[in-house]
Amino acid sequence: MEVRIDHVIISVSSGDITAWKGDLIVNASNSGLYGGGGVDGALHRAGGPQIAAECAAIRQKQGGVMPGEAALTSAGRLPNLGIIHTVGPIWKGGGAGETATLARCYISSLDLACARGARSIAFPNISTGIYNFPRQLACETALSAVVNYVRGAEPDKLPLNNITFICFEQENARLYGETLKTYI
Ligand code: AR6
Q1: 3-state class of 11 per DSSP?
Q2: Over the range 135-147, which residues count as b (16 or more CB within 10 Å of their CB) and which as e?
Q3: Which CATH class is domain 2-181?
């Protein structure tokens, strides 16, 4: 399932994000950038100890990453250009600005990707695992943040031409496919 906006293809697929071969992979990390479970654990295992070492250097330099923000490391032994570590909100019922923070994760990651001159980027379904964000709302928030970002950018200043959402769970793959169709 994909949608084209100007020169950018936004697509949805299912699977394991560690096997994706494009430029930048986004990781759903934590504020301390300590490797954890879920997609974070999978990326640290696949990329090797170099990623944790670079996360430690970021922690030392700036004390970590706030929810909604993002930081870039290499991809260790993975073939990608790098990994963007963003920190999603922990779902606390919806009254603590969780939706706005989640949208900022996508925007901060896209800003970093553009600054790096990346052509392609893959997102997991940030916050919908251990951080417990409701799937449907997370999907609507993610897609509208990304689509609005692309629509709002000047085409010749946007190096990205491929933005993909990689869904690990079937339920998310279905939700993302259906919601992306509404942007055709
Ligand atoms: N590829 C793609 N998506 C995956 C993969 C994978 N290999 N593995 C899991 N997912 P989560 P969060 C999906 O829990 O909710 C960590 O401990 C998963 O099905 O990874 O943002 C961090 O260190 C779900 O849809 O991240 C933080 O402490 C999505 O990735 C905390 O978890 C996000 O689930 C962050 O929690």
Answers
A1: strand
A2: bebbbbbbbebbb
A3: alpha beta
Catalytic residue of the set 6, 16, 23, 40:
40
Q: How confident is the model at residue 184 (pLDDT cuts 50, 70, 90)?
A: confident
pTM of the model: 0.98
% of the chain at pLDDT higher than 70: 100
* 37 Cα: distance to centroid of ligand 1 (angstroms): 7
Give the atom of ligand 1 at the shortest distance from the alpha carbon of 17.
1
Identify which of 39, 78, 91 to mutate to test ligand 1's pocket (most ligand atoms within 8 A of the CB).
39
Amino acid at 17: I
pLDDT in tens, 96-116: 999 999 999 999 999 999 999
